[in-house]
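User: ok so my PI wants both of these folded by tonight, can you help

Assistant: No problem, let's get them done. Here's the first:
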Amino acid sequence: MSNPLDGLHFPIQASNQKPSSSKTGQAILSEALSLVDHQASQAVLSEKNWRKQYPKYFKALVEHGIQNQAHPLTIAQSGLDKAHHTFEFYREGQKYALKDIMHLPSQVLHTVKLKGESSAHPEWYIPYKGQQLKGEALLAQIQTWQDAGIIEPSHADALRLAHAHPEWFDLSDRTMVLFGAASEAGPLTWLSKWKANIVAVDLPNTRVWEKILNTVKDGNATLYAPSVEALDDTTPIEILKDKLGANLLTQTPEIAHWLVQNEHDLDLAAIAYLDGEKHVRVSMAMDSIMQYVSTHKSNTSLMYMCTPTDVYAVPSEVVNASKDKFQQRSKSAQLLSKGISLATQDQFFQKNLHDVITSDNGKQYGIADCLVVEQGPNYALAKRLQQWRATLARANGQQVSINIAPSTTTHSVVKNPLLKAAFNGAGIFDVEAFEPSTTNAIMAALWVHDLRNPKSIANPEVTMDHPLELMMEGANHGGLWRVAYLARTALPFAALYGFAEEKLPVKKVLSLFKK
């Protein structure tokens, strides 16, 4: 049995000799803010109710980021430096700072290759509500989503370009590394149909590798997988599924060294997800590997998928759209929301953020605060770490694809009854949650667009007016940016709507919001 402190962990607190994800998260955010707002930095450290109050500090990161074009880079560098100096890595009873682990002696990982058996030509479509959208039907649905404010125009344009360039989907010239390859929201299924060279990193787990191996076998791609044991490429799947895999949390340096040995340029995708505090740890593991590989292989590109339930800088047009939606509510919706808001002391149905902030570049931006408190500060931190790396890498001349993916009914979401109900009822506020198959097709195509289109904002040679515009482009937020209310003060009622049956009076009352 392995030592429970093997691998990457939150630091042990001197006060009680136990790890604290809250204290660590506060320390990282405090450091991130330290050079742009000392007072806010200290307020983070003194916060007593981090679990409930963390959204205002993540919002402060964005506010300060908007004000000055240099701030997002300062914040990102300070936050990541603190994280890499803070997290600890244990091996054979010894403790190391995460920043130092790439120098540790590491076990050699071997490579197993598997070619798909299909000769089908690469094809792209979007599975949606039981249909396979192609051609005019696909373009019509893209327009419908754009008109409804479900996706931003830049996202719609990227999908239209992907549709117009079917040749982009032949990925035989790309070597694409998937951290968390079997992720339910990841692009494995599509890359397996697009002749990609797929380097799959996932846990040594029979069920996981059976899925990966069979997916690739049924497609036209080529798989490269890690193994601690040297295996012949002719080894059957029934044996391979028990032999493959590498653990991002415990074999971090091994994975990094293995990838550096790859002779091809790599596209690294940080799509691994774990629940709770493990999500922060796996994000740090991916960041360590991606940073190391990028340093040793100059043409490495990065890919991330952001969550819509976060806080972002947004174009002023988005703020105006939300403001218009708030002002154009029906009389019944206004009365009902006002009554509920008064009864709950403004805990529910707060007006969305309609103020704009003028940046030192002369442009105005708003803030879309879509953080959902129930997802917790660890989730917010894990995703913020990824935004920070993307921001720094892009500024340093690296190709970076980072796009907001829609709320998706993955297992990790629907196993939470409240979130499941909230997304089921989100349509009452013109918000759409997508099925995993739909999200997979959309986000895989967006990654291809960012790699193929030289005018994509992923290309560091394309000029941006502000570093935070990297996360504004290509957003599919499912409508959350443009809702009339602060999302976390309305979603409880979306959940109630989702729970309610058609015959229940409460559903008839809630339906007033649609009028």
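One down. Here's the second:
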Amino acid sequence: MLLPCVAMAQITVNGKVTDNNQKPLAGATIRLKNNVTAVNSNTNGDYTLSLPSGRYTFMVSFLGYRTEEKTINLSSNTALNFSLAQQIFIGDEVVVSATRASKNSATTFKNLDKAAIEKNNLGQDLPYLLNQTPSVVVSSDAGTGIGYTGIRIRGSDATRINVTVNGIPLNDAESQGSFFINLPDLASSVDNIQIQRGVGTSTNGAGAFGASLNIQTTTRRDSAYAELNNTYGSFETWKNTVNVGTGLINNKFSFDGRLSRIKSDGYVDRASANLKSFFVSGAYYGEKDILRANVFSGTEKTYQAWNGISEAKLLTDRRHNDFTYDNQTDNYQQDHYQLFYTRTLGSQLTANAALHYTYGRGYYEEFRENQVLDDYNIPAVNIGGATITNSDLVRRLWLDNDFYGVTYSLNYTPKSNLNFILGGAYNEYDGKHFDEVIWAQFANYDGSGSIRHRYNDNDAFKTDFNIFGRANYQLDKFNFFADLQYRSVYYSYFGIDPSGTPAQQNASLNFFNPKAGLTYNFNAKSNVYASVAVGNKEPNRRDFTDSNINSRPLHENLTNFEAGYRTQFSNLSLGVNGYAMLYKNQLINTGELNEVGGQTRQNVPDSYRLGLEFDGRWQISKDFYWAGTATFSTNKIKEFTEFIYDEDPTAINPVVINTYQNTNISFSPSVIASSEIGYNVIKNGQIAFVSKYVGKQNLDNTSAGNRTLSSFFVNDIRLSYNTTFAGVKNIGLTFMVNNVFNELYENNGGSYSYLFGGALERGNYYYPQATRNFLLNLSLKF
């Protein structure tokens, strides 16, 4: 890429940040409004910025103090001081502070604020809004980023990424994945997100084996507001969002609400999505406490595109969908209730507590051809003297679950350079799994005349307890941290006992997850860090239900080393990070059947991920910037054995066994890179060129060259313009052209192998992504 050189005279702005008593505030953030350019004050409260001439609004913030703004016309070297008033209120940030990394933490992380999220929030799912962050690869069943989407960070899929919303676990307790489709347009109610890569700091919920997403929803806004946000795009895509808020009432109360609808036909044939959601939040702010209640819910109806398409179809009909039944849909609703209380118990102690409850229910409906009736507990049908044992049918697979619990944290700061956090959670999950036949071409039901025949019914119960303690100590330029977590999991499920009989089973697991790190601060702008962290993770539902106590997989173990350098100048921010993720007993698909005939994942003794990550932003001039990320990695399984079984019961040699060494971990590209180049072509008008490169990925763990996802390089163009008119505070117009060069690519897929009559067959399937398409957004803020 060739960037033009921009030469421009630089003017120096320097000053001091103090409190009302003229005491210096070290570490205050001085930034330009509507710009990422920022610096931090040093130990004396002093700061320096170099900028071209022009008109600027400076914003200065410091935890516990009110943010102050000053606007100046800059034409010569200028002294600009700030005196911040202490806030009467505690900030909402304390709700999530226990599970977050700070700027001096020896942890690899990326923060996204509301402005960074809003600029790309045109209707695509939350993972797509994170696509420009380091080591991220996203995917979409429908090909548009709307509907069922996936995210991988450092090659780890969603079941290995810990997700919390205000510190409350979002990952499903059994499958361990996070399904953002159940919370459509959540991004419109998000204030900020912290992405920690690797094990990260201790948090609540499932173990972080690739990363953590710590999401904080709407926080206090002092002024009343109303926002209308509407998008129209290719494939009949619509997004309509209304946001309203009262601002701060009588300096004590605030209320916020959102209502959203997203619809799309999808790029893949019939891969439609009909998504609806709402978010309501109310808060009380006292001098020493905050009480906040959140209620949010989402419903989704999506036509299934789960199967992808075959390699042959990829060449002839990229938009093909195997499913043709009219109601081959997934239907689900999830309701979330959260109650938070924060109390300042003195100058040294702050306490947080939260209660939460999530209710999810729904089903997916599918047509099944020529099914054996006995498999559904349906007796054979006698018609005209002929016995019918098979039938076409339609079935619904239901899930009805409750998830509830409590989280807490205590933050104790006995000295300005010493901080202790004690946190933890206790959660329970009740899951009901049941399946019904709602129609069959031939069937004798139970005689009740019911249209629904329930043929499978089982329950699951899980408890998850954790407690962690973390200490940070600042000694001159060194910052030390230690983090210890104990986690206990109990899981009761309907499975196979040692004798092979279906019955209620249970498992108990206890984990100890220590972490330690060291940061050295060269100055207020730059530091280096190193850390080591241990994570442990339980198997998922399928691993349990499709095995017995003798063939059950072991839990996974990860030792994660991180080391990096971070720096922040007036016009340049840069981070470089190296990591080593060393796995013991990582669970992968090998094709092996266990003692009960289930093809569950198997443990491999040793595997690893080694990588180098870059993340930076260069404000080349007032109107011109370049942001980019790059990851270079190697991801290996030292040894594993593949099993391929013959589907012909009369086969002489019923299984083929292959042993592999030093193979690539599937879906783990060795190169991931992103770029965003932006230029303000006119006042309040910007054009941005957004690029993403993902290297070749293996579809299985054999490293076979004919079972891969090809590398892809996709480019988007974003045009945006903001203005004001009459009583409208802001009119924003955004036009996004995705895949502007019409790249034909697939970002997800799979591979399968089988024998029949001794002949080995291997096949691939893929999820094709949309060719050139557009999204046009109009937002109005009052």
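Confidence is low (pLDDT under 50) at residues 1-8. The helical segments are 114-118, 126-129, 311-316, 541-545. Good luck tonight!
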